[in-house]
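Bumping with the actual sequence this time:
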Amino acid sequence: MPHCISKFLLLAVPVLLLGCGGGGSGGGSTAGGGTTTTSSVTALGTVFAVAAGASHTVALAPKAAASGVASLWGDNTWGQLGDGTLDTPKFTPVPLKSSALPVTTGWKAVAAGEAHTLAIRSDGSLWTWGRNDNGQLGDGTVGAGRATPLQIGSAKDWLTVAAGDAHSVALEGTTSPQIMSWGRNSAGQLGLGTTLATVVQTDMTVPTKVTKAITIVGGGAVLSSIPYTNLPWTAIAAGGSHTLALRSGAGGLVFSWGDNSAGQLGQVVPTNVSVPTQIAPVGAGTLGALAIAAGRNHSLCILTDHTLYAWGDNSFGQIGDGTTSSKLAATQVGTDVDWFAVAAGGAHTLAIKQDQSLWAWGSNTYGQLGDNTTGDSLVPIRIGVNQRWLAVAAGRYHSIAIATDGTLWVWGRNAEGQLGLGAAAGTAVLQPTLLP
């Protein structure tokens, strides 16, 4: 679904954060290291990056300097695990497999969508696998799932990837990164419009350059706008059917486009937008953003003063302001000024503070908050007090976190094996549990 920051993003937060949850939960990603494939739980050892899809999970574990092995687990109905099969869920990690790649292939970035997966090799090439009914794999076709990785194009300057429910977004280019998007475009989530009045909803089956963006001038309602071309972008995040991006300069401006039915774009008017458009000023409007995260229908950003803001759907308290009222404009989460990283899931949020404490809020039907209950929380609550944390990723109903020692912890729904614990289907985990 989308997931995190990226889940996970070229942010001023650790390269550990690769996914903010896919499958309608928001998939952000970050540049990291990449190299080889592993096949067992214990072989994972320490983990440097993780991405959470709707019901599947991907982890990158270091094998050598600037290299990472890829393991996946969970739902595999559409081949999203990339192990060469389309079959029952995998309850323990399996290695990524492709006849086109040696088993020693390294990966540096990954994102997990609702049922598809994107990854960037250590050589900068882009590979995709899984569901493809809207062209979200980017290979020029539309059809059933593909169970092994396939390279997209020949470029080797891909920087980062993000995956939504059925759309994909990536940054390409080393000197002036540009947004490339493909897949479902029913709500304009690919950002291929040229003006605010333009509605572009045609699905794309190959990576397509986003050429315009709108910077708002004035306050309140949109008074005027300035279109930009060739913007240098620094981060992306994909929600269920919406997309966020950070633009370099001016301290980091947040742009959004796509579905706005729940206010997840942070725009003044609750209508869909098919061109990247600067959101209304966050906070006092004088600070830029460091990080972004897109959930299924809500969005978040961390400003340069380390305050945290959220907007969009709040039916389960995922905004974290103590209410269940959805927000059309960015709303501050509490008063703390030490937020460090954030990830957004289907209807829950995870965040880490600078003291490396982990916090969660929102929907908790399957224990995805990790507080050993199944009750929702409308405000941030501290999770896993006995560990210190570096990175988080949120799926639709499950959560993943990396501790400071590189160990991987999981909790939430496990009916599809997305926790990787080898437990029987249907066994939810209500608090952070170490992946052996």
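The tokens above came from a reply further down the thread. The radius of gyration is 19 Å.
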